């Protein structure tokens, strides 16, 4: 409790919410909620929120980390493009250490590829303008918070008639990922803590099928510890009252209808791919976006041949199970030993939004972890 | 990336409709405001910024809380601020 009380300014409210949460839990019943967004995972570990929940409430971490879900084959494809003569490959800093089958961007840069980290897709456009004799490619990643920016950048390039700029589009969509998780066998979830900033773009309406068709409550939540505790309280209250609805705990930032202008820009430039391979979740239909035919000149996958190979994850890596919430980070065989933020084997350890990195940095000493470890110890002890 | 960074509007250039100059934890740069859905902006307003684009307007309390949260996550936020600073004074064009 101390860590939380020391760090958080509103400890009384947190204590009251903790007590209210405990009061809503039926004796003998367990509750499992997934927080979809990596930002929430970060808060949960940073503030040790699980230590403030009853034992019967378990939080599992979802796939909402854009770097984490990029499969190795796509990294290889990007490196293949980067190694073509005259190409400048650009992407966000988070991508540098993501391992592909033939190493990461860092490794490719060491072999001589011109790979530059940018803060914004507009920076990649700027590089293209000042290097007219080079082909500049932006490897676009991210959920709906970054997709509109890529769309606007393509529109800008088209308006300027730039001929040396293209996008390798890896934008993914949160709704098909949630559907895949709801459909995955053996995973029992009682509700979802919905993403905050993604929802500023898509709004709350797209989640309605979760409540309607799957009978699971979903509460869109902010990123502060109190936000997440309140969202969990709202989920438990729905369950106690026999409701399953979409509710918005983060209405101070998230409009119910999202950001129509951003959605229009995305729809103008991009369309769903028939399928996309997600690390850990496998191939999910209509779960990612590609550049529309109308903007083909700005599509790196049309401009360059990409191998498009499927590369299996390293055997030791269990990111897939972690991304589906089937394993806690520390239950992975290589967590913290062969796989660390410095030398990641899997993507979940690369990004600060990844469950493994968040847990590695903040969560290792949580009380719940210590309790669970001490319960597991007898089974693990050598005979 | 998925977490927006709050920035305070310090200037709206009169010659550009797509840009606003913001202050993010002491770092000043221009951000694209094309995606704000027709919401009027004034100096002193706060926006949530994702990869150089303002995606929503927020109130000052929310901005302060979000900044506090981001500062608490440490290195990842430092890295993002550094990237924002290094990405140049403002995106042209």
Automatic annotation (TrEMBL), chain A:
Phosphoprotein is among the record's keywords: no
Keywords recorded for this protein, A-Z: Iron, Metal-binding
Taxonomy, superkingdom: Bacteria
InterPro entries linked: Hyd_form_HypD, HypD_1, HypD_2_sf
Assigned protein family: Belongs to the HypD family.
Protein name per Swiss-Prot or TrEMBL: Hydrogenase formation protein HypD
Lineage: Bacteria, Bacillati, Actinomycetota, Actinomycetes, Streptosporangiales
Automatic annotation (TrEMBL), chain B:
Gene Ontology terms for molecular function: carbon dioxide binding; iron ion binding
Domain of life of the native organism: Bacteria
Alphabetized InterPro entries for the sequence: Hydrogenase_HupF/HypC
GO BP of this protein: protein maturation
Family membership: Belongs to the HupF/HypC family.
Protein name: HypC/HybG/HupF family hydrogenase formation chaperone
